[in-house]
TrEMBL record:
UniProt-recorded name of the protein: Glycosyltransferase RgtA/B/C/D-like domain-containing protein
Transmembrane segments: 116-135, 140-158, 164-185, 192-210, 216-233, 240-259, 291-310, 317-335, 341-360
Top-level taxon of the source organism: Bacteria
Keywords assigned: Membrane, Transmembrane, Transmembrane helix
């Protein structure tokens, strides 16, 4: 079994090394509008500090974004009303539509060399957790499953994570949150600080992509429904800690929306981007032919399997994941727009949570009973 662990560990490291070599050749001017918009946010943070939360086009007095538009041969670079991923607000500002988290992380690295370090850092986090899963495995089948899953997660940092700069940090946060979710539910006495940390990370993920708000849905259902049923103080405190963590994590986006759109709850997206739910067979067909379909099948299959055979804390992890999957799939599959990464965050959060729950159950001391919700509420 040690040989199998070593072999899969080396496979994950080999994929990581290959990814880093590939990433080192990436250009920051590949002609994608989203890319230069995230880089503009990073430039604002580097130039203005916290003032970079204000993305008003009037702050482009150094002509940074105009230069980026010229690099990708954008014909209407001089017309700010036509700038990509910027929208006019009721307050008269023309602001960037994206939340500030991705730009903030890019700003941590030197201008001109920002994207590759961000992806390498996120890949190292994902690979580290993949190796941890392999190390935790206690049987040969579990080593094989953990090894294959680990190799897949590292590979995904190239495809589809390259599709948007916001996906790489989201993938890393999903991996960490999945581990912490399994850890939180596997303990005999559940820590309020741990669930608050999970909430903080999920809230922070909203700073990369606004739809990441839905990643917290399953946790709210898991904590809220038992509270309504039992009115337990312990369950209330857990829910309060989680909710507070989510709000604190989202605070940069709420502040940015207040500055740019006039209210913390006002969106900076244009009306063309805010579409009503509608099932579209063409969009559903795109998902069926995409890698996302494979990930969702794996997430649903592994969750259903744990619901069937899992006990105690493992089943409770599966319940959290099942609620999360249901809410997110209803939203995205009824969203009449397709991209190659929309469903990836919920799929990866689900798979990481289920994987670590299964591995932690194997690693539990012999004779120890898994934690139960009833016991944690006493």
């Amino acid at each position: 079994m040690k040989i199998a662990k070593l072999a899969f560990g080396l496979i994950c490291l080999a994929i990581l090394a290959s990814n880093i070599v590939t990433m080192s050749r990436w250009s920051e001017a590949r002609g994608v509008y989203d890319d230069i918009c995230y880089l503009r946010q990073a430039h604002l943070f580097q130039r203005l500090g916290v003032g970079g939360l204000n993305t008003n086009v009037a702050l482009d007095y150094d002509h940074y974004f105009e230069g980026k538009l010229k690099e990708i041969a954008f014909a209407e670079w001089s017309d700010q009303m036509r700038w990509p991923c910027h929208n006019p607000m009721p307050n008269g500002k023309i602001v960037m539509q994206y939340p500030p988290g991705t730009g903030f992380l890019l700003a941590l690295f030197p201008e001109g060399h920002q994207v590759v370090p961000l992806y390498v850092a996120a890949s190292l986090i994902v690979c580290g957790l993949a190796l941890s899963g392999i190390a935790m495995a206690r049987t040969l089948p579990s080593v094989v499953v953990a090894g294959l899953f680990g190799a897949l997660t590292v590979y995904l940092m190239i495809n589809p994570a390259k599709a948007s700069y916001s996906v790489a940090p989201t993938m890393a946060l999903c991996a960490v949150t999945g581990f912490l979710t399994a850890l939180w539910l596997s303990r005999d006495k559940r820590s309020v600080l741990l669930i608050a940390l999970i909430g903080l990370l999920l809230g922070a993920s909203v700073n990369f992509r606004l739809p990441n708000t839905l990643l917290a849905a399953g946790y709210f259902l898991f904590l809220g429904i038992p509270f309504l049923w039992t009115r337990s103080l312990a369950t209330f405190v857990q829910g309060l800690g989680f909710g507070a963590g989510v709000i604190v994590g989202m605070m940069p986006t709420l502040i940015a929306q207040a500055i740019n759109a006039g209210s913390p709850l006002a969106t900076t997206y244009g009306s063309v981007d805010v579409v009503a739910p509608a099932f579209d067979l063409v969009v559903l067909g795109h998902y069926l032919r995409d890698m996302q379909f494979v990930l969702i099948v794996l997430a649903i299959g592994s969750t259903a399997w744990l619901l069937r055979v899992g006990e105690g804390s493992v089943r409770q992890v599966a319940l959290v994941v099942a609620g999360n999957l249901a809410v997110n799939l209803v939203f995205f599959l009824s969203h009449p727009i397709f991209t190659s990464y929309y469903i990836v965050p919920i799929a990866m959060l689900s798979l990481w949570s289920v994987s670590f729950a299964w591995l932690m159950q194997q690693a539990a001391p012999l004779g120890r009973e898994p934690a139960s919700l009833e016991a944690s509420s006493r």
